[in-house]
């Protein structure tokens, strides 16, 4: 096996961990020849720089890599531009690519994969979803024979950290601040808490598992920021917890897909996922439910996925390629819903709410009201029998206009108690 | 991609499901040309025979397959002989092999893999462990970059069915009879309940995950048949349940390995595994714990693994090959232990038991005695601080000779409460 020359684009948390994992593993057939990063001198003084071979060329000029004779480019910078054009150049000049770039693969992966095939090189991205958890290789190779009809999971560690802390009693704003202090959440947490990060990953998983190409912009998202401690208390009464769930399901020619905080019954493995853990459940026609879980983020777990991809390419990897179809997305799942109201309590409120639900055709399954709250700001909960998200949206719009509502009603989809 | 000709050896539960999964998936590049089985006429009248193409040759003569021009042989018969010699002939004549034969791969896999490499064909066995759960592809491809130091799991669905029913209150003999009636357990259940099936799978996982070649005969096993309903009651008091655990850990140049019923704290994912579910936890130096779970057995889940392997070979699969070392096995884990006694209660028994433990150097951690038992056949439990299994074996030998013991003390290893 001839030694392959490797270039690393990005020497941040993951990139520097890749250097460490490579140096520690002493893998045959791999030579780190180039590292591209801005401000190379600063990077050279970071702790993991000691794992970089003395012969490696550090550069701030991407053309030093693209015009070199490296065989494989590892891209760990992220974002769409200029990364896509750099990787297109690499592929066109016969270099294989390993990347953990979820946005790039979600939005432009189909075209890049076609280009790689045309140039007879590999484009491999096992680290783009769930970091150290081998969901992508597991699906691509281990479940290729099945027909996966549904994929659900917890793929954003920041949201899972926040929600599992809230389950233990904390309030959203406090946990978000803690997550920011720990480096789990960005100063602007929108990509995580509003579901855009998870949405990109869901689209990648849909391509691989459902063989469905989705436009990420068509997949509805709901922020976790409206979830409050009181919702966990009510969820507990219902035998559930709350997690940010990314779900996609093949239904005829369309794909139902959504990223949202949802009520998860304690009987489902997804309810057991705590902290920054990731979990993906793939449901197959023949194989039933398969669960993958582990550390989805962090430098070293993600570096493991990157190095595993690299070794696959070095050892002559070739993915199973099955036909992928473009699919229209609908955010409309038929499922029970949880509605939480905060009202200024007056006679007739329950009747008005029941009326609004009746008007859109939704049936009430249960009504919960915990004692000990101020009548002037009374939180209470209604759960419904299965109905469409769009039906509930209509009901929420009607109810949001009622005088007694002190805040917009919170509507959360509830997962079914039983696995299929 | 040229169409590959496929032969299926064995048209039983898994083999016939492979025919069904292949026919339903309509995969390009695959043609089922031969089926070998005894009593072909009977097999042709089984329900899944309708999924077999009309052009497929059915034969009772293995040489019809071995002398044919098939490209890939799928072996689903099981056992060591004559299967090994058949597969050696297939490999030598340039055929790739897909197999779910755990005994063959555990005992003779190393030699067969070398032979396949020499003849430049594939030998792939993702279905040999945990059926439909892609543990083997996940480890081989997704975690190749990590250094896995420990592998633990629930890999025998029959034992998990029995023990999770006992957790719910049933007695061993009754559940075993139920498992036999349901077809989950053989008339002679020894391979399952005594741990030999799980041991073969543990050796395969050790080769792949720990890169350690073990002699299965060196791996100690303990039967689940001595576990009683009372042990689940005491385990519950200790915040645990009981599962058949297959565990292997790299410690210096040796591998600690054992298959036994163990106390599993409810905080660990393995405690959540119910029914015939399988679960494997791989602990890596860089990636931490990764959990795989799902349906480990049954015709269709196992057929998914077989067809996925087949597609990998058809699409030009090439495994990451990392160096594998022969390793000496020790069954000696340093861990807390659970000891359950049934005694004819007399003064001085606790003192005598404590004396026996002190003699071997084991410290008592807790002593539990549930009320409501007959003093003439009193079950009670002692747990110890961490000590070696061999130390406990000595203590059990000493205590087994005491006059008051009505049955042999049961000693179970306890897993630590915390994941690393």
Topology:
2 copies of one chain form a homodimer.
Chain A: E1 4-9, H1 13-25, E2 30-36, H2 40-44, E3 57-59, H3 62-66, E4 72-75, H4 83-92, E5 96-99, H5 102-118, E6 123-124, H6 135-142, E7 148-154, H7 157-167, H8 172-181, H9 190-193, H10 196-210, E8 212-213, H11 229-237, E9 240-251, E10 254-265, E11 277-284, E12 288-295, H12 299-314, E13 325-326, E14 328-330, E15 334-335, E16 337-343, H13 349-360, E17 364-368, E18 378-384, E19 387-388, H14 389-400, E20 410-414
Parallel strand pairs in A: 1-2, 1-4, 2-3, 4-5, 5-6, 8-13, 10-14, 10-20
Antiparallel strand pairs in A: 7-9, 7-11, 9-10, 11-12, 15-19, 16-18, 16-20, 17-18
Helix pairs in contact in A: 1-12, 4-5, 5-10, 7-8, 13-14
List the main descriptive attributes of the protein structure presented here.
homodimer; 420 residues; Rossmann fold; Dihydrodipicolinate Reductase, domain 2; Alpha-Beta Plaits; six-stranded parallel beta sheet; 20 strands; elongated
Structure write-up:
The structure is a homodimer of 420-residue chains. In chain A, 35% of the residues lie in helices and 26% in strands. Chain A is α/β, with parallel strands linked by helices. The first copy, chain A, folds into 3 domains: 4-124, Rossmann fold (3-Layer(aba) Sandwich); 135-295 and 323-330, Dihydrodipicolinate Reductase, domain 2 (2-Layer Sandwich), CATH 3.30.360.10; 334-414, 2-Layer Sandwich (Alpha-Beta Plaits). In chain A, a hairpin with a 2-residue loop joins strand 9 and strand 10. Chain A is elongated, with a radius of gyration of 24 Å. The model of chain A has no long low-confidence stretch (mean pLDDT 94). The interface between A and B is large, with 56 and 55 residues. Strand 12 of chain A pairs antiparallel with strand 12 (288-295) of chain B.
């Amino acid at each position: 096996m001839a030694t392959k020359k490797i270039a690393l684009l990005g020497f941040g948390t993951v990139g520097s961990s890749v250097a460490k994992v490579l140096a520690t593993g002493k893998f045959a057939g791999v030579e780190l020849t180039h590292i591209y990063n801005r401000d190379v001198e600063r990077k050279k003084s970071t702790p993991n720089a000691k794992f970089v071979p003395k012969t490696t060329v550090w550069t701030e000029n991407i053309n030093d890599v693209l015009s070199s004779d490296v065989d494989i480019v590892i891209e760990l910078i992220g974002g769409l531009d200029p990364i896509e054009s750099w990787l297109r150049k690499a592929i066109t000049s016969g270099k294989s690519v390993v990347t953990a770039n979820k946005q790039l693969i979600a939005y432009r992966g189909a075209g890049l994969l076609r280009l790689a095939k045309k140039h007879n090189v590999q484009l491999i991205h096992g680290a783009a979803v769930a970091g150290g958890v081998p969901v992508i290789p597991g699906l691509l190779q281990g479940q290729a024979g099945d027909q996966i009809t549904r994929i659900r999971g917890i793929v954003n560690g920041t949201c899972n950290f926040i929600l599992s802390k809230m389950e233990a009693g904390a309030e959203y704003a406090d946990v978000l601040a803690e997550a920011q202090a720990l480096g789990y959440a960005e100063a602007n947490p929108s990509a995580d808490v509003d579901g855009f990060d998870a949405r990109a990953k869901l689209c990648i998983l849909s391509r691989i598992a459902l063989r469905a190409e989705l436009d990420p912009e068509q997949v509805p998202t709901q922020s976790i920021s409206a979830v409050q401690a009181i919702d966990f208390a009510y969820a507990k009464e219902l035998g559930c917890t709350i997690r940010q769930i990314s779900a996609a399901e093949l239904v005829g020619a369309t794909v139902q897909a959504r990223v949202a905080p949802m009520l998860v019954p304690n009987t489902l493995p997804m309810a057991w996922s705590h902290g920054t853990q990731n979990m993906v459940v793939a449901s197959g026609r023949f194989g039933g439910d398969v669960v993958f879980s582990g550390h989805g983020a962090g430098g070293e777990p993600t570096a493991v996925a990157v190095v595993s991809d690299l070794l696959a390419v070095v050892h002559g990897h070739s993915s199973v390629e099955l036909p992928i179809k473009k699919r229209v997305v609908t955010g409309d799942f038929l499922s029970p819903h949880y509605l939480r109201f905060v009202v200024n309590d007056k006679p007739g409120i329950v009747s008005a709410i029941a009326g609004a639900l009746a008007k859109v055709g939704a049936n009430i399954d249960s009504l919960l009201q915990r004692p000990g709250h101020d009548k002037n700001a009374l939180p209470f909960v209604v759960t419904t029998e299965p109905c469409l998200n769009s039906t509930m949206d209509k009901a929420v719009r009607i109810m949001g206009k009622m005088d007694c509502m002190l805040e917009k009603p919170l509507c959360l989809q509830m997962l079914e108690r039983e696995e299929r």
